[in-house]
Amino acid sequence: MAGSDDFDLWLGRIGSDTPTVGKTLARARRAGGHGAGSGRRFTGARLGRGNGVGRVLGRGSSGAGARRVVVKSRIVKLGKGMTAATHLRYLQRDGTTRDSERGSLYGRDDDRVDGNPFLERSAGDRHQFRFIVAPEDGAQYDDLKPVVRRLMDQAEKDLGTKLDWVAVDHFNTGHPHSHVIVRGKDETGKDLVIARDYMTQGLRTRATEIVSLDLGPRTSQEIAASVAREVEQERFTSIDRALMREANEEGVIIVTKADPGQHASLIGRLRTLSRLGLAEEGRNGRWTLDRELEPRLRRMGERGDIIRTLNRELREAGIHRPPQNHALFDPAQGKAIIGRVVAAGLSDEHRDRRYLVIDGIDGHSHYVDIGEDQQAIPTGSIVRLSPAPIDVRDVDRAVAQVAAHHQGRYSIDLHMKQDPLMTQGRAEMHVRRLEAMRRLIGAPDRQPDGSWVIGQDHLADAERYEREKSRRLPVRIETLSVRPLEQLPHHDGATWLDREIASDQPQQLAGEFGADVRKGLAQRQAWLVEQRLADQEGQAARLRRDLLVVLQQRELSRTSQQIEQETGLQHVTHRRGEMIEGVYRRAVMVGDQRYAVIEKAHEFSLVPWRPVLERAIGKPVSGLMRDGPINWTIGSRNRGLGIS
């Protein structure tokens, strides 16, 4: 069971020593336990509405002439990853209709609905369902709404409950498709649990029946044309699936001429696979398939999609790069890249995974899968991308050490008792780490009294947690400049170009965008000389020692004056060691750095921003000004939550 979406839990009495159902099942999962006498692991696949219908539909055959429909299903726990509101906004983005207009939501009865009431109804939901319905012949429909409405009507009959749903149609790809979002509640207000068989087989079969009824069965000419297209494709196809079914355990298949039409397509596909190094021809019609045929073909298909995306984004941005200068960023290589952001988009609309196209200073154009990272990255900004580290942290070792001295238990009180130098705020950091691990990988166990049961393999769990995080967020993104390169040479403030000029180890610049950066550095150097912030010495320049400080203060002064004019408040500067107190209002950009606006009475201060402050908009905060990151307390100093 991947989560709590498969069944309802009835918890035991709070404080009872009797294990709850949830804890028992969680421990069984981690131990790899199996159902008694079943001989296989219990997965919960048959629990939920539509179980019987899903199994029956999954066993049935749609027939050779049935229209093909792809249905992707996903259960999303609300509150994780991209929020429901963000997902709806993205689905309604510009350029998704046939006329390249903004997509619009529709529902059971209306062709245009407001998503806000749906989000309000979903506010307390534990989860929601997301489906993508993509008929292979979707281009033959002028409108996909009738298909989706009939599909959802049939789903309600199969599941025995009314469904609260909205949908939007997309025509911005070669395959028109519909996104359907269903609330995780049934008509009685209880959590809606749909059987896995219905989600994976039932919906697809129902959609196939609807499309086949609308367009009629596929003709022999259509089937032959579809098969002919698959023969040369560098992706996993239905022909490959047929070959794998006929092959023996060693991957050997003997192709006969029993069916001349099928024989031609099979032989043609096998020759394509041979060219790709995935099949080997023997004697008397014997062929041997690669043991990794399916995963290798799927990777080829993904790579082809990526290359097409990369070419399209570069072309739309007016950037011309030869194919040999295209690159796919691989975090496993451990190398970082620097460049300007050409485009951003979703690589997987179903799972909210995003990509960036980067024009690098190394002369290559990079496609980068950034996973589920949702931060806004403006086009034209300059960024540094590096692989997300997978390391066990000091906090993990500290937790394991405390637990080793207290019979496998950890709590804030135990930690502070063992380490006299440990503060409440720092100990809370360890608890937040444990809670994040519990939510993502199901370990360690949190007890009703707030303590934690720490296993002997806690460090291995911490590494597993980091690996799972890196799968979701494989790349670390550092913004070097929010302004595009062309605005930097004459900007009156500290810029990335200044840091490069002042660096003892400047970046190596190749052609293309690297050449543009080289030109920008020369222009910036000339501007610094004009401003008397540097002295020309031949081809080089000698910079003032306080160059970056001076430029940063100039920009900070302009920003503070602007806020003074907007608010009527007076700006005050805090020195190292002084206490900062006030209400956090908002964040502002000062050059390439984000600062927090802290208001107190008739004055305000600008201090370096930290992400944790976004939880405290409009709330009192306090912290000690220092050279490093500020440890903030949210709320009153006596009853606040320490955030470090």
What does this protein look like?
- The protein has about 650 residues and is of the alpha+beta class.
- Among the domains are: about 1-45, no CATH class; about 70-195, no CATH class; about 220-290, Arc Repressor Mutant, subunit A (Orthogonal Bundle); about 395-470, Arc Repressor Mutant, subunit A, CATH 1.10.10; about 550-644, no CATH class.
- The protein has 17 helices and 25 strands.
- It has a seven-stranded mixed sheet with strand order 19-22-21-20-23-24-25. A six-stranded mixed sheet has the order 8-11-10-9-12-16. A four-stranded antiparallel sheet has the order 1-2-4-3, covered by helices on one side.
- α2 (about 50-60) packs across α6, α7 packs parallel to α9 and α15 (about 495-500) packs across α16 (about 515-530).
- It is globular, with a radius of gyration of 30 Å.
Keywords:
644 residues, alpha+beta, Arc Repressor Mutant, subunit A, seven-stranded mixed sheet, six-stranded mixed sheet, 17 helices, 25 strands, disordered N terminus, disordered C terminus
- From the N-terminal CA to the C-terminal CA, the straight-line distance is 35 Å
Largest sheet: 7 strands, mixed
Count of distinct strands: 25
Share of residues in strands: 15-25%
Radius of gyration over C-alpha positions, nearest whole angstrom: 30 Å
Oligomer: single chain
Low-confidence segments, ≥5 residues, pLDDT <50?
1-25, 31-39, 637-644
Instruction: Quote the average pLDDT.
Output: 86
Q: Which sequence of strands runs across the widest sheet?
A: 19-22-21-20-23-24-25
Total helices: the number is 17
Broad structural category? alpha+beta
Helix content: 25-40%
**Coarse morphology:** globular
